[in-house]
Amino acid sequence: MRPEILFPLFAPITSLPRLGEKIAKRVAALAGPHVADLLWHLPTGIVDRRFAPRIAEAPAGRVATITARVDAHVPPLVPRRPYRVRLIDETGILELTFFHGQAAWLEKQLPLGAKVVVSGMVERFNDQPKMVHPDVILPADEADRAATVEAIHPLTDGVTARQMRGFVAAALERAPALPEWLDPTLKDRRGWPDWRDALAAAQSPGSEAELSPETPARMRLAYDELLANQLALSLVRRAQRDLRGRAVVGDGRMAAKVTGALPFALTGAQARALEEIRADQASESRMLRLLQGDVGSGKTVVALLAMLNAVEAGHQAALMAPTEILARQHLETIQPLADAAGIEVAVLTGREKGKARAAVLDRLATGTLAMVIGTHALFQEEVAFADLALAVVDEQHKFGVHQRLQLSGKGRAVDVLVMTATPIPRTLTLTAYGDMDVSRLDEKPPGRRPVQTVTVSSERLGEVVEAVARKVREGERVYWVCPLVDESEQVDLAAATERHAHLKERLGSRVGLVHGRMKGLDKDAVMAAFAAGDLDVLVATTVIEVGVNVPAATVMVVEHAERFGLAQLHQLRGRVGRGDRPSSCLLVFEPPLAETARARLAILRETEDGFRIAEEDLKLRGAGEVLGTRQSGLPAFRLADLAVHGDLLAMARDDARLVLARDPDLADPRGKALRVLLYLFERDAAVRYLRSG
Ligand code: ADP
Ligand code: MG
Of the given ranges (63-72, 287-296, 344-353, 355-364), which has the lowest mean pLDDT? Predict the structure, then answer.
């Protein structure tokens, strides 16, 4: 249960003054629904109103706070013209302009003859200083209140900077003094303020410099967030460990048949990963392991051999993919190998219906089927396993931690192996998978050819089409990926459809189209036609992003490459270069390219090392975007920026481990404070792993 001291922070933002339903909706969409969310909504800019020149000395284009006398009101002569007010000081005239100005209000704010202070952006027309809608209007004796530094928060339609500042200030007033959860030595050494002081300082920067993520206040807040994250992961990990597992040791007979049937030998990295996995399976505790390997590094075979280990020992194994296409593709890869080992494998997705589905469910429940490949359909309650020992989850990014736990709940002591093709920087592995052991496939199978990567401006799209036409004449196969425009499927689809029509016109009929809105069977049919060589060009939205394997494809064209994440582009590029012919990747960008975008695309030209690409991307863009946090279910940090606070993360991890070693139940005073921290960052689920909640 959430401690009472935090109740005010988890009240809805509508409990704050001036936050009615309508505006609260907008603020919630931007910051979050609770008062605490406003605390985390840190400013990204400032307006410095301390510059207080005389009228004649106020330069155009700069915010100024000016004290002057109201000389005249000039109401509009015709409706809908602006209302003007003239101010004077000993140096000149300042004209204030108000569109839709209400005379009564203006006469009250700016009484004729009164000395007032106004603050806002100064403009000049014919060298005449003007101010359109001053941000601040006060009586002159309150000039101190005007000449301040104001924080500017990220905003949204219909919420002004001043309103947002007011909401945040109101939230800060609700923030209670909380018990200190930081290690006092660390706090002293770093010179970090108390929690509430840190918030207050971060929310009211006195200068540009104080917006830096490296101020003591922001560092402290970032550390708090990372500590909550690492502590929660440590607790989950400990709970997983404590669940008794069982020793699963196969006799290797099926694995031997499969390795015998493979046309290649395992790479050193594959063999190492497999050894680590088998050791976990053989141990009495549960496996929770991440198999991390770049596109094409050969994760599938490793997964299959791990599954066979469980099957040999008389148990069941399941492999779960994020999409229908991928599930079927895994089946295609695994089926012949399973045949070689003399073991049956079935598929279970949303598409299996009626009797076929019932049969698979029945055989899983009775244990006559040992291996199954599927989608999230495997999570569903109706799916029961007689004796599930290993769950392999492919492309973890599309699943959340929550679902991972759901699947491991499908059996007694289920080992979990998560495969991810996204090369995640080490720092991020820690936040996203800090509760898991990691095996890395950092060595590609031999014989891979480098993919030649070029960037081309969309102004030269005609040449790109020419090049594709030439390749097609030479018998090559081409992927053409259309961009994610608006996060709107409608728009994406329109763009892809249009490109499809255009290419068809130029290249002839052997151009296919596949997109996310298509029915599963239709999708498969197009993919199959492309794989079989009945289509030369496959136009796709990003549905082909993960996993598809058509070794004969040698050209990848990506439109609006600047809109994709680097990891995503790297994955797309990984679709080619899988066969023995030279491959190329054309990244078509829309000019002009911003500095960062240019740097990012350059990295792709320079290297094919997915881990390096991921590290560079993190430096350039920040964690949320690298991980694609929104759809991934991975933690999004509000206060920590891993590109800057990476070293704090390792500290937080060590800190969390040390705390739990010394005070496993978080019962001593610091432990109790840490519980508050967990609740503060909504890690309630983790607290439940403690003996006394
Ligand atoms: P990933 O899932 O990691 O992207 P896959 O498991 O799909 O990669 O493997 C990519 C391709 O490499 C497949 O065609 C697979 O048969 C092949 N492959 C896997 N391991 C090896 C190896 N040790 N030597 C040669 N080819 C391999
Ligand atoms: Mg794969």
Answer: 287-296
In this structure, the chain runs to a length of: 693
CATH label of the domain that carries residue 417: 3.40.50.300
* Mean per-residue pLDDT, 429-449: 77
91 lines ligand 1 (CB under 6 A): no
Amino acid 633: pLDDT = 38
Distance CA 635, CA 618 (A): 15
In a domain, 600, yes or no: yes
Centre of ligand 1 to C-alpha 533, Å, is 21
The count of structural domains within the chain is 4
Same domain, 382 and 478: no
Residue 644 within a domain? no
Ligand 1 and 445: CB distance under 6 A: yes
172-210 pLDDT, tens per residue? 999 999 999 999 999 999 999 999 999 999 999 999 999
549: Cβ below 6 Å to ligand 1? Answer: yes
User: What distance in angstroms lies between residue 304's CA and the mean position of ligand 1's atoms?
Assistant: 12
Indicate the average pLDDT of the chain: 88
Strand-strand pairing, 92-98 and 83-89: antiparallel
Does residue 379 sit in the same domain as residue 437? Answer: yes
Predicted confidence band of residue 400 (pLDDT cuts 50, 70, 90): low
Cβ(271) – ligand 1 distance below 6 Å: no
- The pLDDT assigned to 486 comes to 55
From residue 456, give the alpha-carbon distance in Å to each of 511, 557, 580: 22, 10, 25
Q: Please name which ligand lies nearest the alpha carbon of 547.
A: 2
Q: Count CA atoms closer than 13 A to 416's CA, side-chain side.
A: 29
- Asked, for residue 223, whether it belongs to a domain, the answer is no
Domain housing 561:
451-607
Atom 15 of ligand 1, nearest CA residue: 298
d(CA 394, ligand 1 centre) in Å: 14
> Is any ligand 1 atom within 6 A of the Cβ of residue 472?
no
pLDDT (tens digit per residue) in 597-607: 888 899 999 98
The helix, strand and coil proportions of the chain, stated in percent and rounded to the nearest 5, come to: 45, 20, 35
Confidence of residue 18 (pLDDT cuts 50, 70, 90): very high
Q: Which two tokens stand for residue 29?
A: 């969409």
Residue 295 in contact with ligand 1 by CB distance below 6 A: yes
**Is the CB of 580 within 6 Å of ligand 1?**
no
* 140 plus 164 within the same structural domain: no
Domain match, 37 and 59 both: no
The domain boundary, picked from 592, 607, 622, lies at 607
Look at the pTM and tell me if it is higher than 0.85: no
Classify residue 369: in a domain, yes or no. yes
Q: Where are the alpha helices (DSSP H) in 43-135?
A: 103-109
Last residue of a domain, one of 390, 415, 441: 441
7 CA from centroid of ligand 2 (Å)? 45
